[in-house]
Design goal:
Elements: H1 2-7, H2 12-29, H3 35-41, H4 46-62, H5 64-74, H6 76-96, H7 101-114, H8 117-128, H9 134-163, H10 165-187, H11 202-208, H12 211-231, H13 234-241, H14 246-274, H15 277-296, H16 300-312, H17 317-327, H18 333-348, H19 351-361, H20 365-370
């Protein structure tokens, strides 16, 4: 089995961090997709539910850099345990909160894992693997992050169908707390020598970015803005304009996910051997072609092709993540990742609202403009 561990870059710290992502991700996906219905059951109005989604995006942006700072300052293991403890407190607030306003407090705590832990996970992979194996390391982490998305919502939906929205979500939260205890046990096996702290404020971290990382960030912002204009509208276009059933839309999502899982391993291995750039460019091109393929589809077969392209958007994601880590200075690695995602997330925040306004011109307009995001 040593050859398999070597092929998959399953260094112990990487395996442990990826396992933690899998365990907690599986628990959260039991109820995460159903939170809007849960809030509705607690008495929240539709505008409040929309505000909850906006708050989630906000926390996802602003928590990234503090998460990186904590991981650099106190070490990867202690940081991950702290983020996990915040998330557990949030699960308890969700579980025992008597009304919908408590859900916002729960969200602020739960995002301690979903957002703050991300730079620490990146740093674990960067610290533990040499440059030529990092794309594969990110691939394993990405696969274990996505498998729960395929399985857990189905289980969660069955729980809710049998017990009702509130009881079903509560049971999912109890399971998540149990999985969190296993995750604590797992994280304790992370053992990375902490590098000497390099004092630097957020501007110093930005100044440490080499020009290549800044160019990657600008390209990423550009293409993700284009994605954001169309992504939230895809279900509306497919179901309202092309009149595909919700079951058919679910099949299309499954096709995209399967495509992603099929291409992950060979793409990562090739990226580690021949370089990151071709695969990152392929990812950016797929992001631009996807909305164009959606509005070009005239039947379900055309949509299948479009959603295969959607799956191909991930072909260079592990390579892009590996490149971010490659560029970052080791003593600033987690903070660099956090700042990268802070800037990217804040920059693309208006994209969905812009897409909604463009939809009023015609349903095809936001997709056509999003397709103009082919990288130079």
């Amino acid at each position: 089995m040593a050859w398999l561990r070597d092929f998959l870059s399953l260094e112990r710290n990487v395996a442990v961090a990826s396992g933690a992502v899998f365990l907690l991700g599986f628990g959260e996906e039991l109820w995460k997709k159903f939170l809007p219905k849960y809030l509705e059951a607690l008495g929240a109005s539709t505008p409040v539910i929309g505000l909850f989604g906006t708050a989630e995006d906000f926390f996802d942006a602003v928590y990234q850099y503090p998460g990186g700072w904590i991981a650099d300052r106190f070490g990867r293991r202690r940081a991950l345990l702290f983020f996990l403890s915040l998330a557990c407190a949030g699960y308890l607030v969700y579980l025992f909160g008597p009304s919908w306003p408590f859900a916002f407090l729960g969200l602020a705590l739960v995002m301690g894992w979903q957002a703050m832990a991300s730079p620490a996970i990146f740093a674990v992979i960067g610290d533990s693997l040499p440059k030529e194996k990092r794309a594969m390391g990110f691939t394993i982490q990405s696969i274990l992050k996505r498998v729960p998305i395929v399985i857990a919502p189905v289980v969660g939906g069955m729980l809710i169908a049998s017990r009702g929205v509130v009881s079903g979500v509560h049971l999912g939260l109890i399971v998540t707390l149990g999985l969190a205890l296993l995750t604590v046990f797992l994280i304790r096996f992370i053992n990375i020598v902490r590098l000497p702290q390099q004092p630097a404020n957020i501007f110093g971290v930005w100044n440490s970015f080499p020009s290549g990382l800044k160019r990657l960030l600008i390209s990423d912002i550009f293409i993700r803005t284009c994605e954001g204009m169309a992504d939230v509208l895809i279900i509306l276009y497919v179901t309202n304009v092309l009149h595909v059933s919700f079951a058919g839309f679910g099949m299309l999502i499954a096709i995209a996910t399967i495509t992603t899982l099929v291409i992950y391993l060979p793409a990562a291995k090739a990226a580690d051997r021949v370089g990151r750039r071709p695969f990152i460019i392929a990812t950016f091109c797929s992001f631009a072609l996807y909305p164009l393929a959606i509005i070009s589809a005239r039947d379900f077969g055309g949509l299948v092709i479009a959603f295969i392209i959607a799956g191909l958007r991930e072909i260079g994601e592990p390579a892009r993540k590996a490149m971010i880590v490659d560029f970052a200075e080791p003593q600033l690695r987690a903070r660099s990742v956090g700042l990268y995602y802070l800037v990217r997330s804040m920059a693309i925040t208006p994209a969905a609202a812009i897409g909604g306004l463009l939809w009023k011109l015609s349903p095809q307009t936001p997709f056509a403009i999003a397709g103009s995001g082919l990288p130079a």
